Amino acid sequence: MRRSMLFLPGNAPNMILSGDCLGADAIILDLEDAVAPDQKDAARVLVRNAIKYLQFPGVEKIIRINSLDTPYWKKDLDEMVPLKPELIMTPKTSCAADVLEFDAYMSELEDKLGFERNTVKLLPLIETALGVENAFAIASASKRVAAIFLGAEDLSADLHCKRTKEGKEILYARGRMVMAARAANVDVYDTPFTDVNDDEGIRIDAEFAKGLGFTGKASISPRHVGVINEVFSPTQKDIDYAYEVMEAIRIGKEQGKGAVSLHGKMIDAPIVARAQQTIDMAVALGLGREEC
Amino acid sequence: MDKVVKTLKEAIQLAGVKDGSRISFHHHLRNGDYVLNMVMDEIAGMGYKDISVNASSLFDCHLPLVDHIKNGVVTEIITDYMSGGIGAQISEGILEKPVQFRTHGGRPADIIKGVTPIDVAFIAAPTADTMGNMTGKIGKSACGSMGYAYADAMCAKKVVVITDNLVPYPLPYPSIDETYADYVVSVDAIGNPAGIVSGTTKITRDPVGLVMAQTAAKVIQASGLLKDGFSFQTGAGGATLAAAQFLKEIMLKEGIKGSFGCGGITGYMVDMLNEGCFESLIDVQCFDLKAVESIRTNPKHTEVSAMRYASPDAKSAAVDSLDVVLLGATEIDTDFNVNVHTNSSGKIMGGSGGHSDTAAGAKLAMIIAPLSRARLPIVTDHVFCKSTPGSTIDVLVTQKGVAVNPARPELAAKLKDGGIHVVDIFELKEAAEKLCGSPKPLVKGDKVVADIIYRDGTLLDRIYNVR
Amino acid sequence: MNTLKKASCGTMESSDAYMELEPIEAGTQIELQSVVEHQFGDSIRALAAEMLKEEGVENVKLSIVDRGALECTLRARLETLIGRAREEAAHA
């Protein structure tokens, strides 16, 4: 379960070390934009050691490596793949071929390490106009792709538009990303809300992303993690309703009924599917019921 | 009758300071205080020796005191708190007799009982009239409450009022009145306003501090104490203040009307009063300008003496009615004993202040501290020195879980029910050592540099020099 | 093997360490300034000596300003430092 993902700069020990207690479901250890070119070597070794020695129990580890147009990405993968992080985030992914290039090199490393192929999954970061247009191709390029991620800062530059708090300029990209991800049957994560001090704004932005169908949302500030978790968690009302749905279905089956209704509304397959998703999430959050 | 004396020197003579006298000071001017140095320089210049200084706290603005110790003018120090600059010197062993550390409640109790009788109290007053009625609420050096000066004024054989805002008699609404004052001296400045109160006290922006603060607020909620009539004290440390902020949000959201906020008061507590979280503030000391402004203008913001704040000998003190207090720690051991007197190198850098008074009084005494600071675990087998006994501490909040004193199983159960991640304190110690490695323990020297006297007058622990 | 050029690594931020390595005539000198000298000074010096030895680095002066870095951070900084000193030499 990844409701929230927190970016941490890869060359800052004091930030990295507390990564597992800031409330985020996943941390994104950043070797790319947060690290100056002359510190790439230092960050790579620091992040590798941090994961190796500290492990960050209870938190998923995502590494943002450098992009294909840099001399760093292979070295990044050399150091990171052996650690089996949950996900490798690849920046500026613009087409399926980009995914396949990362994929091929990772397979090579996995073979060398004696890991099963596709042990380490990919999280393509889509942050160009071309990438958004190719979102479905990227999401379905390889079994290694577990989810896709929208990066709105670089995208709005590529779109020649201003990034705003309201985010109207990325509405199309958000919709397109969700559509592509769901069509490819992978998860989809939303871009960070960048005004660290706007507690109201982050909630509105997160609720909007959830409404569009995003799985979760990233953050550049620990301050936003709590709100993101809250927004992307089912409410008690949602959970109660989901259990009611499953109970109605169970009784319907016992009685051999074809169609089941609850509170006068027909329960069809999508409602059941959504109820099951809610229950799965509630269980993962420790809010589930014993009997199910 | 004329109490106004032309010079400080004359006042010192008239008050009868002599070799071996005990003189006292309050610390409401904090790190901006000029009065202690002014008086000590004068006394040294007059050739007196063997002076005992009883100051409710000492800050690094008082570093000249070190020279007076080295040349024998000062041979005894009694205080509740000492900043790191002076503390480091004391830890070197420059003073023959151990420093006597008391608590903010124990100090006035021992003055009143005659355990530490005062010959002359020198009281810095931001405003005073010609008969010695004084207040801290107005004047260019305003500090707000003068709570720590009451016992000194009431019990010293002679009282010298030192002010930089002398006003005609009678000063309306004095904090401490003329019945106690012997002499009044007017000087150019009693302190540097920039050091007296900070403009604003800042909430931490450290992400770990905020995580702990949020957890602390949830612990208070889960404890069952957060209901109408709630009373609360917090230190001015970044994480404890942030916890107050989170608590305020909960109280406003749930419409909880508290009873009082207590202690050293910051602007954040003033906001809580003004927004209806409390009926009143019980203020022994103001930490920032907003608190000073509030105590001057808001009758619900009350000035109290250190006796009413925390004295163990009073028939009752405000700390006895406290529900929750949030406190910090340099170290805490697996028996929940807390050290706030020294830094991690064993050098004196602090003191009880109201730490052990409030811990003893409050129904729920909480320590907020990270698992480690700069590779040093906070939870240890044994604290370097015991400032507050573990029997009075209920909960330790860290970023990796909340440890409950095993003597409070019912509290642990409540917190678990409230969804708090409750862990054994030994687990926290192990987690910290796994992260940091095991530090080489400090080796105590053979010289006692300070005694820690608990609020009931018993010797709680001794601080040794460090080898 | 032991062709090194002067290099530096790390920062003065809390929980980090700043290090410099430079070749000297003979022997290995380690200078440490640490906020946790009392508690961890010896173990930091031992770690540094061990890593230099493992990497076959000698005839160097290593200066460390430690701001309370964890062992995994110290190891990372030392590894990067040695790598940079060799890199610099390779490019010289």
* CATH C-level name of chain C: Alpha Beta
**Strands of chain C, total number:** 4
Rounded to the nearest angstrom, the radius of gyration of chain B is 22 Å
- Per DSSP E runs of 2 or more residues, the count of β-strands of chain B stands at 27
* Content-based structural category of chain C: alpha+beta
Percent range of helical residues of chain C:
40-55%
Number of helices of chain C: 2
Main sheet: strand order of chain B: 1-11-9-6-2-3-4-5-26-27
How large a portion of the residues of chain C is in β-strands, by DSSP E? 25-35%
Largest sheet of chain C: 4 strands, mixed
Assembly state of the chains shown = heterotrimer
Kindly state the mean pLDDT of chain C as a whole number?
Answer: 93
**Major sheet attributes of chain B:** 10 strands, mixed
Q: Which protein chains are joined by the largest interface, and how many residues does each one contribute?
A: A-C, 15 and 19 residues
Poorly predicted sequence stretches spanning 5 or more consecutive residues of chain C: none
Through-space gap between termini of chain C:
15 Å
Question: Can you describe this structure?
Answer:
The complex is a heterotrimer of chains A (292), B (467) and C (92). Chain A is an alpha/beta fold and 292 residues long. Chain A folds into 2 domains: 4-231, TIM Barrel, CATH 3.20.20.60; 236-284, no CATH class. In chain A, 46% of the residues lie in helices and 15% in strands. An 8-stranded parallel beta barrel of chain A has the order 1-2-3-4-5-6-7-8, surrounded by 4 helices. A two-stranded antiparallel sheet of chain A has the order 9-10. In chain A, β4 (87-90), α4 (96-113) and β5 form a beta-alpha-beta unit. In chain A, α9 crosses α10 (222-231) and α11 packs across α12. The longest helix of chain A is centred in the last third of the chain and has 19 residues, at 236-254. Chain A is globular and about 65 Å long. Chain B is an alpha/beta fold. Chain B has 2 domains: 4-195, Glutaconate Coenzyme A-transferase (3-Layer(aba) Sandwich), CATH 3.40.1080; 207-442, Glutaconate Coenzyme A-transferase, CATH 3.40.1080. Chain B is 29% helix and 24% strand. In chain B, α2 links the parallel β2 (22-25) and β3. The longest helix of chain B is centred in the middle third of the chain and has 17 residues, at 238-254. Chain C is α+β, with helices and mostly antiparallel strands and 92 residues long. Chain C has a single domain (7-91), classed as Ribosomal Protein S5, domain 2. Chain C has helices at residues 37-54, 71-91; strands spanning 7-10, 17-23, 28-34, 60-66. In chain C, strands 1-2-4-3 form a 4-stranded mixed β-sheet, with helices on one face. The two termini of chain C are 15 Å apart. Chains A and C meet through α1 and α2 of A and α2 of C.
